[in-house]
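Exercise 3.2. Students should predict the tertiary structure of the chain below and write it as structure tokens, then compare their answer with the key that follows.

Predict this chain's 3D structure.
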Amino acid sequence: QLNGRKHARPATAMATAGGGTGEDGGGGLRRVSNSYSNIAEAAGLAGLSNLGNTCFMNSVLQCLSHTDVLTRHLVGGAYRHEVNRRNPIGSRGEVVEQLARLMRSLWAGQSRSVVPRDF
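Answer key:
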């Protein structure tokens, strides 16, 4: 709870899977699996420690953290097969791996504050 109100868990994302309007496989919307549905009520309520001049970065990271589809993708590990680790001018997936690690820490429900030192 936060100030007497329960923090709502992210709603299950819906994705278009065809051309209909139903949820039952009729070509409409399908339910995307919720890979962190069993997280404690405090999940996602963690703050980010300010490491000097990181407040603007922390604000952006918090916004990204509360973008349900992105967070599900990162926390659940679905992004791993999409990373181009062979790009010679890329980061070989290190940026997305650190972002995913940070999102998992924020959504673990185990601490009130996370230090984004590795990010």
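Discussion points: DSSP finds three helices and four strands in the chain. Strands lie at 14-16, 29-31, 47-48, 113-114.
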